[in-house]
Amino acid sequence: xxxxxxxxxxxxxxxxxxxxxxxxxxxxxxxxxxxxxxxxxxxxxxxxxxxxxxxxxxxxxxxxxxxxxxxxxxxxxxxxxxxxxxxxxxxxxxxxxxxxxxxxxxxxxxxxxxxxxxxxxxxxxxxxxxxxxxxxxxxxxxxxxxxxxxxxxxxxxxxxxxxxxxxxxxxxxxxxxxxxxxxxxxxxxxxxxxxxxxxxxxxxxxxxxxxxxxxxxxxxxxxxxxxxxxxxxxxxxxxxxxxxxxxxxxxxxxxxxxxxxxxxxxxxxxxxxxxxxxxxxxxxxxxxxxxxxxxxxxxxxxxxxxxxxxxxxxxxxxxxxxxxxxxxxxxxxxxxxxxxxxxxxxxxxxxxxxx
Length: 355
Ligand SMILES: [Zn+2]
Prior knowledge:
- By secondary structure, the chain is mostly helical.
- It has helices spanning 2-23, 27-50, 57-78, 84-105, 115-119, 127-148, 162-175, 196-202, 226-237, 243-255, 260-281, 283-291, 295-311, 314-329, 341-354, and strands at residues 190-192, 206-209, 214-217.
- It folds into two domains: 2-111, no CATH class; 115-354, no CATH class.
- The chain is built from 15 helices and three strands.
- The chain has a three-stranded mixed beta sheet, sandwiched between helices.
- Helix 7 crosses helix 9 (226-237), helix 9 (226-237) crosses helix 10 (243-255) and helix 10 (243-255) crosses helix 11 (260-281).
- The termini are far apart.
């Protein structure tokens, strides 16, 4: 009986691969029947089961998975009772099951309609469009910065606890009057990661556990980064699996909020991506634009950079490689590079709003 189940699961794996391969050609169907329908219900069930628990159940689940894999490896090396064939069958069945659960609970969202299609905006923009967008962002950011500090040279300090920022970001999602994004966030399910220290070394601010739909954030990052990080992870929770789309949602939700600190995090977040993009197109111009920013704003950027530098090392490079491959496997062929696609969304969304 046990062997039959294992065999069925193992055979199921290539069938799943084929199914996903075909599904990539039908983003409309995924959008309608999965992302806007099945996923909405299944994620509500996940939130109902895990949101009231103060720590991350998903992190425990990951720890258990690591233990199971280690146990399997030890058995493989010692191999006394089971044949190699049985052990490989077990491994295949395990991978097949995890792969199945990953997709049913969250992963099919990778194959939904691209956000620019849902929003009805283009992905094309030229340097003049980008320049106009950046100038507007710089003006807004400088004005807001002056309201938050007494001198241009001071960085903005975030005197909030994690929980306070968490609640502000949750409220931002609840109160948003943006009808373009189809946001329906009802249950707060955001937790500090049990793995925050290793995450810091790996260069990660947070992640969503697809099996439990809990959003975890790295509680060691500077508080100034909490709003956009949390908003990004909630974006993932809502079914925007792709990095660039979660970044876009995080920018819009925080930039449009009434809280000034959230807006400051959001504006500087969008600005950073836009300036990086301008740097690729025209490094001299990007330098001129940066010099327009209040020095205190650069200090907030510096604070974040210092944080990551304190933890940088070989682990970060290895993780970047692994995560880059993960993104490629999951329908984001440009890998980590695709992060700049967020600028295409921001510039064109802004253009649509202002005309
Ligand atoms: Zn992400």
